[in-house]
Specification:
Largest sheet: 8 strands, mixed
Distance between the termini: 23 Å
Helix content: 25-40%
Shape: globular
Number of strands: 18
Protein name: FAD-dependent oxidoreductase
Number of helices: 11
Bound molecules: flavin-adenine dinucleotide
InterPro entries: FAD-dep_OxRdtase, FAD/NAD-bd_sf
Strand content: 15-25%
Organism: Nonomuraea bangladeshensis
Radius of gyration: 21 Å
Structural class: alpha/beta
Keywords: Oxidoreductase
Length: 412
C-alpha cells in the first residue's frame, strides 16, 4: 500500500517528492496539479521582511525553511534533470528592500528595524539616496528603506514544474481526479455520500474542486460523540476507493472540506509584467496609501506585482479594482512599471489559519496534515516536506510543535 497525498500544490508535491526520494511508495491525487495558490504565488522567501510583531513562531519556521532552500533547489534541479541547477527554479538571493515615503512610514520602518535587531535579524537601515543607489528605478520620493539582505525568492511555477518532472522521473503515480472523502475504518458505508452538499454556482464558476460535506456543516467537523476512526484511504470522484497506509492532506484552501481543519480561503490578486531588461535586482516592498505592495523581479525580465488580501470565500475573479490598486501602488514605488507589457493577471486562494501558522503533523491514525500555509507556502515548502518525511531533526524537529494540529484540539 502507498501513502496518498491529497493535493498537488507546492506543499503536496514537495512532500511527495521527499517521500519518494526516501524510497517510500507514494501517489498524488489532484484534478489540477500545480494550480491553486501555488500558480498565483510571487515566490518570496522573505521571513525577515515579512516579520510582524505578533508572528514570531512564523518567523522561526520561515528562517528554518529558508536555510533549507538552497539544498532543496539544487537537489530538486538534479532530480528534475534541470541542467542549470538551482537557477532552474530561479532561486535568487539578492535580498528584499522595504521602502518608505512619508514621515509616518519612516517612523514605522525605524520601529521595525529596532524590533528586528532585537531578534538578531540581519537588516540594514538605508537613506533614500542609498536605496536609489541599490535600485536606480525607485521613485525619487522614496525617503528611506530597510534592507533584509538574507531574504530570497524563487519562481513558484518553475518549482512546481520541476517537482512534477522529478516525480515523473521517479515514476510516482499522479491521479488527476478529486478526492471526495477520507475513508475511515469505522465509517458506515454511504455516510459521507449521503451528506454531500451540492456545489454552489460560485464553486462551479470559479472552477473549484467541489466541496463535500454533511449537510449544514463542513465535512470533517465532528460532533463530540463521533469517534474518529483510522484513516484507511480516500474516495475518488466517481466512487472508486484508493487505500493508503497514510493520507497526507495538502489540499490548500480546500482542506476544510475533507477534514475538520480551520483553514479558510484568503484571496490574492497578482499580476505579471514583462520588460526587455529587468527593472530591479532585488525584491522591493512598500506601503502605499496604507496598503502593502511588492515587486519581485525574475531573471527573464518578468516583474511580479502583488498582491491583494481579500476575505471573499472561494472567489477567484480578477477585478478591475484589484488590478487598478496594484498598478497604482506599484507605480508609486517604481514609476517605470507603466511602460511594461501586462503579461498575466490571476487570483489565488491562500489557505489561511486563525493564527497564520500552518497546520503540519499527524492528526489521528493514518492522517497527516500539511495545510494552512497562508502567505508563506512557497517559503515553508522545504521545511514542511522535511517534517512530514521525518527528515527534520534536532532544533528543527522542535519546530514541529509550533505548527502541530494539536493546538486546535482534536481534528476529525
Ligand atoms: P495550493 O497551491 O492551493 O494547492 C492545493 C491543491 O489541492 C490544488 O492543486 C487543488 O487542485 C488541490 N485540491 C483541492 N481540493 C482537492 C481535492 N478534494 N482532491 C484533490 N486535490 C484537491 N507564499 C510564499 O511563500 N511566498 C510568496 O511570495 C507568496 N505569494 C503569494 C501571492 C498570492 C497572490 C497568493 C494567492 C499566495 C501567495 N503565497 C506565497 C502563498 C502560497 O501560494 C501558498 O501558501 C501555497 O501555494 C500553498 O500551497 P498548497 O500546496 O498548500 O496549496
Amino acid at each position: 500500500m502507498v501513502e496518498v497525498i491529497v493535493g498537488g500544490g507546492v506543499i503536496g508535491l514537495s512532500v511527495a517528492w521527499r517521500l519518494a526520494r526516501a524510497g517510500r511508495p507514494v501517489t498524488v491525487v489532484d484534478p489540477d496539479p500545480a494550480g491553486g495558490a501555488s500558480h498565483a504565488a510571487a515566490g518570496m522567501l522573505a521571513p525577515v521582511s515579512e516579520v510582524t510583531y505578533t508572528e514570531e513562531p512564523l518567523l522561526r519556521l520561515g528562517l528554518a525553511s529558508l536555510r533549507r532552500w538552497p539544498a532543496f533547489a539544487a537537489e530538486l534541479a538534479a532530480d528534475a534533470g534541470l541542467p542549470e541547477g538551482a537557477r532552474g527554479v530561479d532561486l535568487r538571493t539578492e535580498g528584499t528592500l522595504d521602502v518608505a515615503f512619508g514621515a509616518d512610514d519612516l517612523a514605522a520602518l525605524d520601529e521595525l528595524a529596532a524590533f528586528m535587531e532585537k531578534l538578531g535579524l540581519p537588516v540594514e537601515r538605508l537613506t533614500g539616496r542609498e536605496c536609489r543607489r541599490l535600485e536606480p528605478m525607485l521613485a525619487p520620493s522614496v525617503r528611506g528603506g530597510l534592507l533584509a539582505a538574507g531574504d530570497a525568492w524563487v519562481d513558484p511555477r518553475r518549482v512546481t514544474a520541476a517537482l512534477l518532472a522529478a516525480l515523473e522521473r521517479r515514476e510516482v503515480p499522479l491521479v488527476r481526479t478529486r478526492v471526495t472523502a477520507l475513508l475511515r475504518e469505522d465509517e458506515p458505508a454511504g455516510r459521507v455520500a449521503r451528506g454531500r452538499r451540492e456545489d454552489t454556482p460560485e464553486d462551479r464558476s470559479a472552477g473549484l474542486p467541489r466541496q463535500d460535506g454533511p449537510e449544514g456543516r463542513v465535512a470533517g467537523l465532528r460532533h463530540a460523540d463521533e469517534a474518529a476512526g483510522r484513516v484507511t484511504g480516500v474516495r475518488l470522484e466517481g466512487g472508486a476507493e484508493l487505500p493508503a497506509t497514510t493520507v497526507v492532506l495538502a489540499a490548500g484552501a480546500w482542506s476544510a472540506a475533507l477534514a475538520g481543519v480551520p483553514v479558510r480561503p484568503v484571496k490574492g490578486q497578482i499580476l505579471r509584467l514583462r520588460s526587455p531588461q529587468p527593472l530591479l535586482t532585488r525584491c522591493v516592498r512598500g506601503s502605499v496609501h496604507g496598503s502593502p505592495v511588492y515587486l519581485v523581479p525574475r531573471g527573464d525580465g518578468e516583474l511580479v506585482v502583488g498582491a491583494t488580501q481579500e476575505e471573499l470565500g472561494f472567489d477567484t475573479r480578477v477585478t478591475a479594482g484589484g488590478l487598478y490598486e496594484l498598478l497604482r501602488d506599484a507605480r508609486e514605488l517604481v514609476p517605470g512599471v507603466t511602460e511594461l507589457e501586462l503579461a498575466d493577471v490571476v487570483a489565488g486562494l491562500r489557505p489561511g489559519t486563525p493564527d497564520n501558522v500552518p497546520i503540519v503533523g499527524p492528526a489521528g491514525d493514518g492522517l497527516v496534515l500539511a495545510t494552512g500555509h497562508h502567505r508563506g507556502g512557497v517559503l515553508l515548502a522545504p521545511l514542511t516536506a522535511a517534517l512530514v518525511a521525518g527528515e527534520a531533526g534536532g532544533e528543527e524537529g522542535g519546530l514541529a510543535a509550533l505548527c502541530s494540529p494539536a493546538r486546535f484540539g482534536e481534528i476529525a
